[in-house]
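Worked Example 4.2. Consider the chain below.
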Amino acid sequence: MEQKLDHIMTQFRDLTEELRRELREVKKLQDLEKRLKNVEETLEEMKKEKEKKVAFSASLLASGEGHTGPMKSVTSPLIYKKVFSNYGNGYSPDSGVFTAPIKGVYFFRFYAHCQGGTKMAVSLYRNDESQCSVFSWKPTHNGNATNGTVLTLEKGDRIYTKLWDETWVFDDPEGYTSFSGFLIFPL
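Applying the procedure from the previous section yields the following C-alpha coordinates:
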Protein backbone atom coordinates (compact mmCIF):
# COMPACT_ATOMS: atom_id res chain seq x y z
CA MET A 1 0.00 0.00 0.00
CA GLU A 2 2.84 2.33 0.91
CA GLN A 3 4.49 1.62 -2.40
CA LYS A 4 1.31 2.37 -4.21
CA LEU A 5 0.97 5.64 -2.29
CA ASP A 6 4.58 6.56 -3.14
CA HIS A 7 3.91 5.79 -6.77
CA ILE A 8 0.77 7.97 -6.76
CA MET A 9 2.69 10.78 -5.03
CA THR A 10 5.46 10.57 -7.64
CA GLN A 11 2.91 10.69 -10.42
CA PHE A 12 1.21 13.61 -8.72
CA ARG A 13 4.54 15.52 -8.43
CA ASP A 14 5.38 14.71 -12.06
CA LEU A 15 1.96 15.84 -13.22
CA THR A 16 2.20 18.96 -11.06
CA GLU A 17 5.60 19.82 -12.58
CA GLU A 18 4.29 19.15 -16.07
CA LEU A 19 1.28 21.35 -15.34
CA ARG A 20 3.60 24.13 -14.13
CA ARG A 21 5.65 23.84 -17.35
CA GLU A 22 2.45 23.97 -19.39
CA LEU A 23 1.26 27.03 -17.42
CA ARG A 24 4.60 28.75 -18.06
CA GLU A 25 4.18 28.02 -21.77
CA VAL A 26 0.61 29.35 -21.69
CA LYS A 27 1.88 32.49 -19.94
CA LYS A 28 4.55 32.93 -22.63
CA LEU A 29 1.90 32.51 -25.32
CA GLN A 30 -0.36 35.03 -23.58
CA ASP A 31 2.55 37.49 -23.38
CA LEU A 32 3.29 36.94 -27.08
CA GLU A 33 -0.37 37.41 -27.92
CA LYS A 34 -0.43 40.66 -25.94
CA ARG A 35 2.71 41.92 -27.69
CA LEU A 36 1.28 40.96 -31.09
CA LYS A 37 -1.93 42.84 -30.30
CA ASN A 38 0.13 45.93 -29.35
CA VAL A 39 2.05 45.71 -32.63
CA GLU A 40 -1.21 45.38 -34.59
CA GLU A 41 -2.67 48.41 -32.78
CA THR A 42 0.49 50.43 -33.49
CA LEU A 43 0.34 49.49 -37.18
CA GLU A 44 -3.33 50.47 -37.33
CA GLU A 45 -2.54 53.85 -35.73
CA MET A 46 0.30 54.41 -38.19
CA LYS A 47 -2.07 53.57 -41.06
CA LYS A 48 -4.64 56.06 -39.72
CA GLU A 49 -1.96 58.74 -39.31
CA LYS A 50 -0.93 58.27 -42.94
CA GLU A 51 -4.56 58.62 -44.03
CA LYS A 52 -4.77 61.92 -42.13
CA LYS A 53 -2.17 63.59 -44.36
CA VAL A 54 -4.02 65.30 -47.16
CA ALA A 55 -2.81 68.34 -49.15
CA PHE A 56 -2.76 69.42 -52.78
CA SER A 57 -1.82 72.41 -54.89
CA ALA A 58 -2.13 72.90 -58.65
CA SER A 59 -2.16 75.63 -61.29
CA LEU A 60 -4.31 75.77 -64.39
CA LEU A 61 -1.94 75.10 -67.29
CA ALA A 62 0.61 72.29 -67.43
CA SER A 63 2.80 74.42 -69.71
CA GLY A 64 2.75 77.54 -71.85
CA GLU A 65 0.32 80.39 -71.37
CA GLY A 66 -3.24 81.15 -72.30
CA HIS A 67 -6.73 81.84 -71.16
CA THR A 68 -9.64 79.57 -70.36
CA GLY A 69 -13.06 80.88 -71.35
CA PRO A 70 -15.27 82.56 -72.11
CA MET A 71 -18.01 79.96 -72.41
CA LYS A 72 -21.68 80.64 -72.90
CA SER A 73 -22.73 77.95 -70.43
CA VAL A 74 -20.14 76.59 -67.96
CA THR A 75 -20.99 73.05 -66.91
CA SER A 76 -17.66 71.54 -65.87
CA PRO A 77 -14.96 72.40 -63.31
CA LEU A 78 -11.74 74.19 -64.12
CA ILE A 79 -9.08 71.52 -64.53
CA TYR A 80 -5.78 72.44 -62.91
CA LYS A 81 -3.20 70.39 -64.80
CA LYS A 82 0.13 71.47 -63.26
CA VAL A 83 0.10 69.60 -59.95
CA PHE A 84 2.67 70.84 -57.44
CA SER A 85 1.68 68.38 -54.72
CA ASN A 86 -1.09 65.87 -54.16
CA TYR A 87 -0.45 64.16 -50.85
CA GLY A 88 -3.19 61.63 -50.19
CA ASN A 89 -4.22 61.69 -53.89
CA GLY A 90 -7.44 63.57 -53.20
CA TYR A 91 -7.09 65.88 -56.22
CA SER A 92 -7.69 64.59 -59.75
CA PRO A 93 -5.84 66.48 -62.52
CA ASP A 94 -8.13 64.70 -65.00
CA SER A 95 -11.37 66.15 -63.62
CA GLY A 96 -10.25 69.19 -61.58
CA VAL A 97 -12.10 67.79 -58.56
CA PHE A 98 -10.78 67.22 -55.04
CA THR A 99 -12.56 64.30 -53.33
CA ALA A 100 -12.21 64.17 -49.53
CA PRO A 101 -10.51 60.88 -48.63
CA ILE A 102 -11.55 61.19 -44.96
CA LYS A 103 -14.09 63.13 -42.90
CA GLY A 104 -12.54 66.29 -41.52
CA VAL A 105 -12.11 70.05 -41.49
CA TYR A 106 -10.31 71.33 -44.60
CA PHE A 107 -8.97 74.66 -45.85
CA PHE A 108 -9.26 75.59 -49.54
CA ARG A 109 -7.81 78.55 -51.40
CA PHE A 110 -8.13 79.54 -55.03
CA TYR A 111 -6.51 82.34 -56.98
CA ALA A 112 -7.61 83.68 -60.35
CA HIS A 113 -5.89 86.03 -62.79
CA CYS A 114 -7.19 87.87 -65.85
CA GLN A 115 -5.69 90.21 -68.38
CA GLY A 116 -6.85 93.77 -68.87
CA GLY A 117 -10.24 94.27 -70.49
CA THR A 118 -11.60 90.81 -69.63
CA LYS A 119 -14.18 89.82 -67.05
CA MET A 120 -13.05 87.15 -64.56
CA ALA A 121 -15.24 85.28 -62.07
CA VAL A 122 -14.64 81.92 -60.40
CA SER A 123 -16.58 80.10 -57.68
CA LEU A 124 -15.59 77.29 -55.32
CA TYR A 125 -18.15 74.47 -55.15
CA ARG A 126 -18.87 71.77 -52.61
CA ASN A 127 -21.00 68.97 -54.08
CA ASP A 128 -22.47 71.30 -56.73
CA GLU A 129 -23.22 74.13 -54.26
CA SER A 130 -21.32 77.41 -54.54
CA GLN A 131 -19.36 78.22 -51.37
CA CYS A 132 -17.45 81.42 -52.23
CA SER A 133 -16.34 83.38 -55.29
CA VAL A 134 -13.91 85.90 -56.78
CA PHE A 135 -14.68 88.54 -59.39
CA SER A 136 -12.84 91.18 -61.42
CA TRP A 137 -14.72 93.42 -63.89
CA LYS A 138 -12.61 94.27 -66.94
CA PRO A 139 -9.58 95.79 -65.22
CA THR A 140 -7.46 98.33 -67.12
CA HIS A 141 -4.42 96.13 -66.60
CA ASN A 142 -4.21 92.67 -65.11
CA GLY A 143 -6.77 91.62 -62.51
CA ASN A 144 -6.20 89.24 -59.61
CA ALA A 145 -8.48 87.85 -56.96
CA THR A 146 -8.22 85.21 -54.26
CA ASN A 147 -10.53 83.63 -51.74
CA GLY A 148 -10.35 80.84 -49.21
CA THR A 149 -12.63 79.01 -46.83
CA VAL A 150 -12.69 76.35 -44.12
CA LEU A 151 -15.20 73.55 -44.77
CA THR A 152 -16.28 70.49 -42.81
CA LEU A 153 -16.35 67.61 -45.28
CA GLU A 154 -17.64 64.08 -45.20
CA LYS A 155 -15.59 61.36 -46.87
CA GLY A 156 -16.39 61.53 -50.60
CA ASP A 157 -17.44 65.22 -50.68
CA ARG A 158 -16.32 66.89 -53.91
CA ILE A 159 -14.66 70.33 -54.08
CA TYR A 160 -13.89 72.16 -57.32
CA THR A 161 -13.88 75.58 -58.96
CA LYS A 162 -15.85 76.75 -61.99
CA LEU A 163 -15.82 79.82 -64.19
CA TRP A 164 -18.97 81.90 -64.34
CA ASP A 165 -20.67 82.08 -67.74
CA GLU A 166 -18.95 84.47 -70.18
CA THR A 167 -15.83 84.98 -68.02
CA TRP A 168 -12.12 84.23 -68.44
CA VAL A 169 -9.05 83.28 -66.44
CA PHE A 170 -5.42 83.44 -67.56
CA ASP A 171 -2.43 81.32 -66.61
CA ASP A 172 1.21 80.94 -67.59
CA PRO A 173 4.26 79.08 -66.21
CA GLU A 174 4.17 81.30 -63.10
CA GLY A 175 0.90 79.62 -62.03
CA TYR A 176 -1.28 82.74 -61.55
CA THR A 177 -4.54 80.77 -61.54
CA SER A 178 -4.32 78.06 -58.89
CA PHE A 179 -6.28 75.87 -56.49
CA SER A 180 -5.04 74.39 -53.18
CA GLY A 181 -6.38 72.65 -50.13
CA PHE A 182 -5.38 70.66 -47.10
CA LEU A 183 -6.82 68.77 -44.16
CA ILE A 184 -6.64 70.82 -40.95
CA PHE A 185 -7.79 67.95 -38.72
CA PRO A 186 -9.80 64.74 -39.09
CA LEU A 187 -13.20 64.20 -37.42
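The mean pLDDT is 89. The radius of gyration is 32 Å. Compare this with Example 4.1 before moving on.
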